[in-house]
Write a structure and sequence with these properties.
The protein is an alpha/beta fold and 375 residues long. The chain folds into two domains: 174 residues, Glycogen Phosphorylase B (Rossmann fold), CATH 3.40.50.2000; 184 residues, Glycogen Phosphorylase B (Rossmann fold), CATH 3.40.50. The chain is 50% helix and 17% strand. It contains 18 helices and 13 strands. The strands form two sheets. It has a seven-stranded parallel sheet with strand order 3-2-1-4-5-6-7, with helices on both faces. Strands 10-9-8-11-12-13 form a six-stranded parallel sheet, sandwiched between helices. α4 runs parallel beside α5 and α10 packs across α16.
Length: 375
């Protein structure tokens, strides 16, 4: 009988990593059957998804509370699928509030549990590591310091490197890409990456656009490209752009080309900061959440930086403008500082390249797939 693996991912970054993992599993063992929960990318890679993740990818206290029934229904559906599908193993990808509970259900049934892409337990609510120790058979991590963290806690852990090293590759040359979207290669380009969730875009994009107007007024020949995730409807952007003082070029499906074509990126905190780092592009990390979410986060989060690139570096190598500091004035001042100082820009690029070098070598998804199939 072919092996059957249940994979659970609940948001855009998990869908991306899950799709790379699914392709690697299929490449090694073509007959393997993949079931579970994922997005469009995982489905294209061969996953039979029992639940659409579009309504489950939310951030913020109020947003999560308003979606509790959807989470509960999805969880119960997948637990029933554990009993009907009887997978040989369960692979959990990040998404801790959902997946740590799901690990308990899988272990009740004697199914091996592998966690791939660690939740940020090291940043907040570290007590969850006890759940990992009890219910996860193998933790596969993609950041070197995570291996040290889990090994110290007595968790069975392996480091495979970062899967984005195999994924983050532009599809076009810079001039070819800019020509495709009617942009001038001789002008400065700033990429806008306001997030992959609707609530992130609604909070971050208006600030970025106001800052863009200030930057253009100061530097003149500057143009802006907005990287649009395919899963977010155009109408969500149109609503914001109607009131915007500046209209960027909207590019769907080519986020790495947007970053690669730019001198600088304004990036919402998350996976996009790693993608920008891999392309060695200077960036500013900009992030706003609801006041309630921010206040709760201040109480729970125990790390000095929120940007993954800064967390990996162990220091702030990229400016972070978070919550009340995320203003058009502050953003334009930071951009002006970088544009006015080539030495400062080059220094940031060098530090980004050094952090990138510590992400491991190519082939992380295949190494993870080999470990999973062995288990």
């Amino acid at each position: 009988m072919p092996k059957k693996i249940m994979i659970i991912a609940g948001e855009a970054s998990g869908d991306l990593h899950g799709s790379s993992l699914a392709l690697a599993l299929k490449e090694i063992e073509p007959d393997v059957k993949l079931v579970g929960m994922g997005g469009e990318k995982m489905v294209k890679a061969g996953l039979q998804s029992f639940q659409d993740i579009k309504d489950l990818s939310v951030i913020g206290i109020l947003e999560i509370l308003s979606s509790l029934k959807k989470f509960k229904d999805a969880f119960n559906l997948l637990v029933r699928k554990l009993d009907s599908e009887k997978p040989d193993a369960v692979v959990l990808i990040d998404y801790p509030e959902f997946n740590l509970r799901f690990a308990i259900e899988a272990k009740k049934r004697g199914i091996p549990v592998i966690y791939y892409i660690s939740p940020q337990i090291w940043a907040w609510r570290k007590g969850r590591v006890n759940t990992v120790k009890k219910y996860v058979d193998k933790m596969i991590v993609i950041l070197g310091f995570e291996k040290d963290f889990y090994a110290k806690e007595g968790v069975n852990v392996e480091f495979v490197g970062h899967p984005l090293l195999d994924v983050v590759k532009p599809s076009f040359g810079r001039d070819e890409f800019l020509k495709k979207y009617g942009l001038e290669p001789a002008f400065k380009v700033i990429a806008l990456l306001p997030g992959s969730r609707l609530t992130e875009i609604e909070r971050n994009l208006p600030i970025m656009l106001k800052a863009a107007k200030r930057i253009k007024d100061r530097f003149g020949n500057t143009q802006f490209i907005l990287a649009k995730p395919a899963e977010i409807k155009v109408s969500a952007y149109e609503k914001i752009l109607k009131r915007a003082p500046l209209k960027p070029a909207i590019v769907e499906g080519y986020p790495y080309d947007c970053i690669n074509a730019a001198e600088l990126a304004l990036v919402a905190s998350g996976t996009a900061t790693i993608e920008t780092m891999i392309l060695e592009k200077p960036m500013l990390i900009i992030y706003k959440v609801s006041l309630l979410t921010w206040l709760v986060g201040k109480l729970l989060v125990k790390v000095p930086n929120i940007g993954l690139v800064n967390i990996i570096a162990g220091e702030r190598i990229v400016p972070e403008l978070v919550q009340f500091d995320a203003t058009p004035s502050n953003i334009s001042s930071e951009v002006s500082s970088l544009f006015s100082s080539p030495e400062k820009t080059e220094a940031m690029k060098a530090r980004l390249a050094a952090v990138k070098a510590g992400l491991g070598g190519p082939g992380a998804s295949r190494r993870a797939a080999e470990m999973i199939l062995k288990i």
